Amino acid sequence: MRRIVLTALALVGLSLASSASAFVADEYNPNEGPATLTWWDLRVVPRGGDAVQALGAAQRADVEYVRGMRPHHAGGVTMSRAYLADPEARNPSLRALAYAIIENQTFEVRLLDDVSRLLAEPVRTINFGLFRVAVRPVGTEGLGNQWRFLRQPIPILTYVGGEVTARDVRFAKAMIVHHEGALRMAGEFNSNPQERNTFLALMNVHILTDQTQEITLMRNVIAAYPGNPDAIEVQPGDVQGMDMPMGGPIGGSGGGHGQH
């Protein structure tokens, strides 16, 4: 009996675990089919325990995160589209970055929508006789291939060529504030001891890596502005999908700090 239970648990563990690299590189590969794999979170429920309560804290943390990051990412897409539509948006590095933000964050918004769908499903219970295991779906691997998504690279960090206008500086400052909000949310989620969603945690590693590099690029663009960047202020309406700090516009060359 003990061997049967251990074997069953091992099979469950294999079905719940997936390689980190598979998600981080989750984009279209014409040599692979559109198959997807659901990621699961599980917890052993003691005799007489409640399965929903066993995963309740982790479930609430996931829902709260998605409710924050999803509109935040959508706001970054809105900001990038508004920037690209402005004839004063001229810096080629920033324009390339804006295109990358639109493509990459639109994909991540769709991933978050899928996670939200999974989180709405009821917690399931697997009965092993001596004990039960509570399981819940937390993410879907392979959607990048199914959706034929190709991740857009960010421009070279150390090179800022072309003209830098006041509109470029304003966008860079606003997006720095926006990115700093995403970094806070991603970092807080990954350091939360109640959090068990490895799918979202790996997505956050992506966010932390990409957006830290993008902030460096935008600061380099601001530094290349021929005028005084401190005189260019970010208005509350320039930052979408998150709360701005109290007190009106943000100045300074670093972009300032927002609050989510």
Describe the structure in your own words.
This protein has a 3-stranded antiparallel β-sheet with strand order 1-3-2. Helices cover 52% and strands 9% of the residues. It is built from 8 helices and 3 strands. Helix 4 runs antiparallel to helix 5 (92-119). The protein is mainly α. The chain is elongated, with a radius of gyration of 22 Å. The protein has one domain (2-238): Ferritin (Up-down Bundle). The chain has helices at 2-16, 20-24, 51-54, 56-84, 92-119, 143-146, 166-190, 198-223; strands at 37-45, 124-127, 132-141. It starts with a helix and ends in a 37-residue tail after the last helix. Mean pLDDT is 84; it is low at 1-21, 245-249 and 256-260.
List keywords for this structure.
mainly alpha, 260 residues, disordered N terminus, 3 strands
Write the layout of secondary structure elements.
Layout: H1 2-16, H2 20-24, E1 37-45, H3 51-54, H4 56-84, H5 92-119, E2 124-127, E3 132-141, H6 143-146, H7 166-190, H8 198-223
Antiparallel strand pairs: 1-3, 2-3
Helix pairs in contact: 4-5, 4-7, 5-8, 7-8
For the residues shown, what is the average pLDDT? 84
Give me the number of helical elements: 8
Please, how many domains? 1
Describe the largest sheet: 3 strands, antiparallel
Would you identify the regions where 5 or more consecutive residues have pLDDT less than 50?
Answer: 1-21, 245-249, 256-260
The CATH class is identified as Mainly Alpha
How would you summarize this macromolecular structure in one to three sentences?
This protein is mainly alpha-helical and 260 residues long.
